[in-house]
Amino acid sequence: MNSIAPRTVISFGSTRFTFTSLSPSSLRLNPFSGKQKLFGGFKSVHSTSVKHIKAVMELNRNLYPQIEPYSSGFLKVSDIHTIYWEQSGKPDGHPVVFLHGGPGAGTSPGNRQFFDPNFYRIILFDQRGAGKSTPHACLEENTTWDLVEDIEKLRKHLEIPEWQVFGGSWGSTLALAYSQSHPDKVTGLILRGIFMLRKKELDWFYQGGASAIYPDAWEMFRDFIPEEERDDFIVAYHKRLTSSDIGVQVAAAKIWTKWEMMTAQLIQNKDNITRGEDDKFSLAFARIENHYFFNKGFLSTDSFLLDNVDKIRHIKAVIVQGRYDVCCPMMSAWDLHKAWPEAELKIIQDAGHSANEVGTAAELVAANEKFKYLLLNGSA
């Protein structure tokens, strides 16, 4: 008697994809060729538009164990800058590049844990001036478009035809800018804590709005600046973060960094807050972040990233957003989703900004798992 192969349903927004034989023993990798994109290179048994369909498959939502890189190095990307990069996971796996936040925050070992190391070739790198990249905290030749081209230089250096892109907070900004500039190199997007560097987003966090929720943390940030300069805190801090006096820079950097660290999670994390006490970390984080915000992200218009969504509309994407994100409030994720309804929006009801909050981390892992299973069943 013929048996019916088991079927698995994975939902993306209002679209359902049904697969056969999704047991571990039947999974096999179907590497993408140059033109094959995520969701474009698999055969589904059944695909239909429906509403409110949940995946019947239980995706892993737990962070993967800590791993070490199998290779790392430095890539000279300009006469001034050299960036640190590393690879971990499966050397011949599906490549995914992790774009860190800030800008200026750098990467950390925990960033590798969002990805299955037995499937993904995980690429992390520190953006210009951040982490292990040199020169440290350097603002010269450090713009959004420099970073976009650095990503391309790194992709070519590692001989990767195309890759999945994963970015949160400022990393979501950079992921959008990169994918809109090089859509043919992106197989899928996972974005978290959406930030598009619009005036209303910067005003919310640095001029009022967030201060109503964290008045205790705000007082420290506010009181460092004389009253006569408080009409624009980004400008006032820029003056101090670019001072010729390194002592002034460090003092301003610590306070700038602490303000963000104190507001980054729904329930404040003391370990996160103490990062603001580290001179080296806070100097890069604050100087580079403020430099980008002072220059409006080096974007030509306030709505640049929204205006260019059509360039990436065909790329499948998942947006993960904490409902109570104070740093990058949900209005931005909502605006992006309205402009790009094809992207799946996952709202975490008990989370703030950080990728490390339990619910957010779980959805980020699950998003990678969805992409993994779709890639594995490219010829199902």
Care to describe what's here?
The structure is a single chain. Helix 2 links the parallel strand 8 and strand 9 (186-192). The protein has 11 helices and 11 strands. The two termini are 22 Å apart. The strands form 2 sheets. Strands 4-5-7-6-8-9-10-11 form an 8-stranded mixed beta sheet, sandwiched between helices. The protein has a 3-stranded antiparallel beta sheet with strand order 1-2-3, with no helix packed on it. The chain has 380 residues and is α/β, with parallel strands linked by helices. InterPro entries: AB_hydrolase_1, AB_hydrolase_fold, Peptidase_S33, Pro_iminopeptidase. GO terms for molecular function: aminopeptidase activity. This is Proline iminopeptidase.
Q: Strands, helices and their partners?
A:
Layout: E1 7-12, E2 15-20, E3 46-49, E4 71-76, E5 82-89, E6 94-99, E7 120-125, H1 144-157, E8 163-168, H2 170-181, E9 186-192, H3 199-206, H4 215-223, H5 233-241, H6 246-261, H7 270-273, H8 279-294, H9 304-307, E10 317-322, H10 330-339, E11 344-348, H11 358-376
Parallel strand pairs: 6-7, 6-8, 8-9, 9-10, 10-11
Antiparallel strand pairs: 1-2, 2-3, 4-5, 5-7
